[in-house]
Amino acid sequence: MGKTYHYQPAGTITVTTTGNIDDLDFQKCAVVLMNNASTATLRGLKAGYPGQRVSVVSVGAGAVVFANNDSGSLAANRLAIPPGATTLTAGNGSATFAYNEVASRWRLVSYEPGTTSLNASDLTSGTVADARLSANVPLLNAANVFSANQRVNAGLGVNVAPPATGNVALSGGIFDYARAVALGSGVTPTYNASDFSGTSGTWTVDSGDIATFKYAYLGQFMVVLWGIDTSTINATGQLQILVPDGKTATATSIGNSTYNDGGGAVSFESGFAQIVNGGAFIQIFRPGLAAFINGTNNQTVRGFILFPI
User: Fold this and answer.
1) In terms of pLDDT, which residue wins out, 41 or 176?
2) φ and ψ of 64, to 5 deg
3) What is the dihedral of CA 176, 182, 186, 187, to 10 degrees?
4) C-alpha 163 chain-centroid distance
């Protein structure tokens, strides 16, 4: 017997039909481009010769559904589809069929359903990797940046359990205005003898004379507290302290100060402290602007002042 040879055109054919498609005559082309605007259900292809292959590619806006052994097409033209391989996603799926002359069916030999837009309602179990989440979703174990106002309608604890009463509990400080010093945290400046002086004459403060010298930030304010014991005064004007951390006042402010002459002439009288707008020094005054009494290692000056910065 002579052999029978079949010629299969290598071209493509485009199909725009929607709805049910039976006994599709694809003119023996190797590729069928499904450019259907809405869902098309392919229920059969015109019978081929043994081993003939045809690829169906979705390029349209509608999905392509394959119907298994559907009676809408002639028996020899029907498709043999395994379970689960029934649909091509609109615009990007493909499937290849080979004709089996024994079964007289187009058997599915490869199947790429294509990607599909996932609806969150489809997720009923399992987990989603962090990398797959939107950048708008804050992560538990990662740094998050919020670009809009946030409201917490319950107690908030930062590195500590939320408070039983009140709103916020912190295990550390609040660093406002990009400062390296926490809000309200008392800081002791590094000792420098030149931080203490007189407007006329000298005020000598040794490191051992300092019982207390601290400052703290309160928002846009600074508070300075000093307690200087056994210092040496040789001045006819006011005493002054350099404002810590290189700050200056943005308004004139008045504070409290007391003075004790260790020689016995004055016993803790109440004066005042002042810093002027733009000033970098806290000036300390006796009542009535009287001169301080000169003394060596026996002069006590204490006080505090709050001023805007």
Assistant:
1) 41
2) -115, 120
3) -100
4) 25
What residues have CB less than 8 Å from 84, skipping those under 6 apart?
none
Q: For 98-142, how does the pLDDT look when each residue is reduced to its tens digit (9 = 90+)?
A: 999 999 999 999 999 886 666 777 678 888 888 888 888 998 888
Residue type for 205, please?
V
Residues in contact with 178: Cβ distance below 8 Å, sequence separation at least 6, in sequence order: none
Cα(95)–Cα(58) distance, rounded to whole angstroms?
A: 9
Q: Which tokens is 291 given?
A: 């001169």
- Confirm whether pTM is higher than 0.70: no
- Which residues lie below 8 Å from residue 176, measured CB to CB, with a gap of 6+? 183, 217, 219
Residue keyed to tokens 């869902």: 39
Dist CA 224 CA 241 (whole Å):
10
Rounded CA-CA distance 239/208 in Å is 18
Domains and CATH numbers, the chain: 12-112 (no CATH), 193-308 (2.60.40)
- Tell which phi-psi region holds residue 250, choosing left (phi > 0), alpha (psi between -120 and 50) or beta: alpha
Report residue 229 as tokens: 């014991």
3-state helix, strand and coil shares in percent for the chain, rounded to the nearest 5: 10, 40, 50
Nearest to 293 by CA among 261, 253, 271, 268: 261
Question: Three-state SS string across 201-236, please?
Answer: EEEECCHHHEEEEEEEEECCEEEEEEEEEEEEEEEC
Q: Token pair of 286, please?
A: 């006796």
Return d(Cα 98, Cα 52) in angstroms, integer. Answer: 5
Residue found under tokens 């493509």: 12
For residue 207 the two structure tokens come to: 């490191």
